[in-house]
Prior knowledge:
This protein is mainly alpha-helical. It is 62% helix and 0% strand. The chain is built from ten helices and no strands. Helix 3 crosses helix 4 (91-110). It is elongated and about 65 Å long. The two termini are 18 Å apart.
Amino acid sequence: MKPREPDSAGVSIRLEMIQTRWSLIRQAHTLSGSTPDQARNALVMRYGSSVRRYVGALLRDDHDADEVAQDVIVRMLRGDFGKADPTRGRFRDLLKTAIRNMVKNHWEKQNRRRPVDYELDLVAGQAEPVDDRWDEAWRTNVLDLAWGSLKDYEETHTGSIAHTILKLRTDHPDDTSEQLAEKLGKVTGRPVKPEAVRQQLRRSRVRFAELLVTEIANGLESSDPDRVQDELIALGLYETVREFLPPEWNAKV
Length: 253
């Protein structure tokens, strides 16, 4: 990434300072106390939508998908993923393996009288590799979480329109600055100049990039910058954010 002048939004991030979600996973599998329940609930809230999307892509039956996804969630709430080990790889890969095994078990139960050797990578009728469906589900989940964090940021920072303006640009990608300024003025109830729109939009994109990088790092076994960049690339998100990342985003301490 080529060096650039610091953005006026003043956003900077040191990945080594990010607390990864492995701490949450460890808390979810302690033996006693209130912390495990809270952490397990947090895991479900964080990964539940990815689980349901992936199971749905495999089974393509809402009833069966709801049943298997619920079983996965119950296991998460019980702490059955206590053997998750960050040295074995990304948590999302371990979770994917568990889901695939549960789907296989579900199929085997449905075909007790007529055993069938199911190959998850060659599910009949799938137009794309099943692993791509998991990456897609995870990518959607990460983006949703980043958008949610951006909305929280706006709501907790007086005067911020970070979420509002970026959502307007996303919904109206072909609008000029003048058209976007008119729409933003109607939302905020005060006139907005096109130049101000451009400046605010730039700040919002930088903020979103920061939140997305943080979210990616939270789901890894390590917040090493190279690992984070590899994950961004693997999920097809790197080109989305690279232009808006501050120069020091991947600086190593």
